[in-house]
Design goal:
Shape: elongated
Low-confidence stretches: none
Mean pLDDT: 82
Largest sheet: none
Number of strands: 0
Structural class: mainly alpha
Radius of gyration: 19 Å
Number of domains: 2
Length: 90
């Protein structure tokens, strides 16, 4: 019904967004060992983007497959919590 369509759209949107992110992920200087330089974050001023710059090591150790699995788990748990309980068949 309508709930199944909603779940389909949410999952499709999540997966589509994840795929686009994976395809657009850019490592500017793969030879660099410093994540700020390797990911091109040095172009972001520390005063304007302190939080993004502080996430350099987390961004540098990104594991797309693990992020997809974790995100799907969270999404499915959240969707399951919002759907009404199934009615027993007679």
């Amino acid at each position: 019904g309508v709930d199944a369509l909603h779940v389909y759209r949410v999952l499709f949107g999540y997966l589509y967004g994840h795929i686009l992110t994976e395809l657009q992920e850019v490592v500017e200087r793969p030879e660099e060992t410093d994540d700020v330089l390797r990911l091109g974050l040095h172009r972001l001023t520390i005063t304007e983007f302190p939080n993004v710059r502080a996430l350099a090591s987390a961004l540098g150790s990104y594991d797309g497959a693990a992020e997809l699995d974790r995100g799907l788990d969270l999404l499915l748990i959240g969707l399951g919590a919002t759907l009404p309980a199934p009615t027993p068949a007679l």
